[in-house]
Amino acid sequence: MDASTPNPSSPASISKATFPTSRKGFDQEKVKAFLVSVAAEMQTLTDENARLVKDLSEAQQRAVNLAELDDELLVEILGEEKSRTLVAAREETRAERAEMRARLREIVEEADRHVEQANLKIARLRESARLWAEETELHQRRLAEQFDRARALAADVVAVLDPQSIAADVSSIESMSTNASEALGDVLGNESAPTTVADGSANEADADDGPSADVVPLFPGRNAVVDEELDLAGILIPRRDEVIGDTLATLTREVRKFLEDELDSVLAAIDGDDEKKRRTPLPGPAAYRKRYAKLTAEAFTAAVEAGAASVCADVVDGVAASAAADSVVDDQLLSVVRGQVIQATKDNSGDAAAIVKSVRATYRAVKGEHVQTVLHEAMAVAYATAQLLSASSGTKVRWVASRGTKPCAECEDNTLAGAVDLGSEFPTGVVTPPGHLGCQCELVLVDE
Fold first, then answer.
1. Cα 395 to the center of its chain, rounded Å
2. Which residues contact 294 (CB under 8 A, 6 or more apart)?
3. pTM value?
4. Of 183, 433, 204, 130, whose CA–CA distance to 310 is shortest?
5. CA 272/CA 270 separation, integer angstroms
6. Which pLDDT tens digit goes with each residue over 323-348?
7. Which of 333, 322, 340, 338 is nearest to 381 (CA)?
8. CA-CA to 75 of 20 to 30 Å: which in 57, 110, 305, 391?
9. Rg of the chain over all Cα atoms, to the nearest angstrom
10. What are phi and psi of 104, to 5 degrees?
11. Domain ranges in the chain?
12. Under a CB-based contact definition with an 8 Å cutoff, are residues 176 and 164 in contact?
C-alpha cells in the first residue's frame, strides 16, 4: 500500500486522510467531514466487537459440565427456583438410572434361572426316559421268560397227551360193555360176578374211608381239596411274588417319581439364597423317614395282609410288620441318599457345580434297580414278619425259592432243612426270609 494512501481499517487514519486536489474534484471540506463520520462509526463498531470478544472469553472460562455444578453455583447462575428444578431433575435421572441398572440385573438373573430350570427339566426328562427304557426292557425280558416257560409247559402237556394214545383210549372205552355185570363176566365168569361186585363195592367203601397215609400234598401249606380243584381247573397256587407283584411295581414307579421331584427341590435349595437350606437341603432323619413311610404305607399293609393269609391266619400286629419294612427302606435307601447329599455339600463347600454333579450322581444311582431291589426286600420282610406274628403256635413251614428260580448257595442249606416250626432258626441262622439283599426265597406252610 502507498504511504500516502490512508489505512481503511484504522478510524484515525481515515479521519486524517488527505487527497490531492484536481480540477472538477469533490469539495474537500465535505469529503473530510464524511471521512470523520465514517471513522467515528468504525471506531464504535471496533469497540463493540472488542467488548463482545471479551464477554465470550469470560463466558467460555465459566462454562462447566452441568452434571458437576454444585448447588451454590447453580443458584448463582440460574437463580434459586431454576436451580431447584435442575437439581431435582438430576436426582431423578440418577434414581432412574440406578433403577434401570437394577432391573437389567434382575432380568439377566431371571434369564439365568430359567435356563438352569430348563436344563434341570431336560436332564430329568432324559433320566425318566432312560429309567422307562430300562423298566420296559426288564418287563420284556420277564415276558420272554414267562413265554418260554409257558411254551415248555405246553410242550410237556402235548408230550403227555399224545393224540394217538388218547384216540386208542377213547376207542377202548367205547368198545367196553355198558353193563357192569357183563364187563365183570368177561373177566371173572358169569357165576362169580355178583360176589365179585359185592366184594368190589366193599373194597371201594374201604378205600373211601380217607386218604392213604403215604399221600404227599402236591402244594404243601394249602388245603388239599382246594388244591385239587385248582389243579383240575389248571390254576397255579399263587406265591408271594405273584401276590405282591403288581403292588410292588406300582410302588416302585411312585417312589421313583417321588425321588425325581425330591431331586428338583434339592437342586433348587442348593441354588437358593438360604444358607441353611444350601447346607442341609433335605429334612432331618425322622421327618425324612416319615415322608416315605406315608408313601409306602398302603403297599406294606397289602404285603402284611398277604403274609398272614399265606399261613391261613388273620393279621395280629400289622403295625410291627410294617415298621420292619420301613426299617429296611430307611437303612438301605433313605440313609444312603441323605448321607451322600449332606456329605456332598460338606466336601464341595462353595462349589455349587460340584455339589450339583455329586447330588445328581447319588439320585441316578438309587433310582435304577436299587429302588426296586430295596422295595422288594421291604415287602418281603413285611410279608414274612406277618407270617411270624400271625401264625398259630406249632405251625410248620418250609424255606423255598421263588417260583421259577433256584436258591442261592447261601440259602440252599435252608431249603434242605425241610419242615421246621415257624420261628425256629434255619441253618444259616435266620428265622424268615429274606436271607440277604436281593433274596427271592419265602416260607410256605406245610400240611401234616
1. 44
2. none
3. 0.48
4. 433
5. 6
6. 999 999 999 999 999 999 989 888 88
7. 322
8. 57
9. 54
10. -65, -40
11. 11-62, 222-390, 392-448
12. no
